[in-house]
Amino acid sequence: MQITFYGFLQMIVGEMHVDFPLVESSNLATAWEQIIAVYPKLSQKELLIPPRLVVNNHFIAPEDWHKTSITNTDYLEVFTTVASG
Fold first, then answer.
1. Would you say the C-alpha torsion 35, 19, 12, 16 has a positive or negative sign?
2. Cβ count near 49 (within 10 Å)
3. What's the rounded Cα separation, in Å, for the pair 72 and 61?
């Protein structure tokens, strides 16, 4: 899955664009957990506020992450809630 990080999230990850292999096709919440396992500083404990996740140019509200399917062919953009890069 292609991921683009914006704003200070890019500094946390160390690069803007990442080719991230999902362990399995899943929902967005599970995919985000896989991303946090690799980049623990992206956790809500560290950020305090969940990031804005955009899948294939569609914003997904945090309460819908569990209902949103995602695969390795999708494109994820990750924004801070206070700035868009």
1. negative
2. 10
3. 20
| pLDDT tens track for 57-72 | 999 999 999 999 999 9
Helices (H), 1-85: 8-13, 28-38, 44-47
Mean of the per-residue pLDDT values of the chain: 89
Whole-angstrom distance, CA of residue 6 vs CA of residue 25: 24
SS3 for 64? helix
CA dist 72 and 8 (Å) reads: 24
pTM of whole model > 0.90?
no
Both tokens of 23, joined, read: 């362990």
Strands 52-55 and 69-70: unpaired
Tell me the pLDDT tens digit for each residue of 44-53: 776 767 789 9
Question: By the 8 A CB rule, do 80 and 52 touch?
Answer: yes
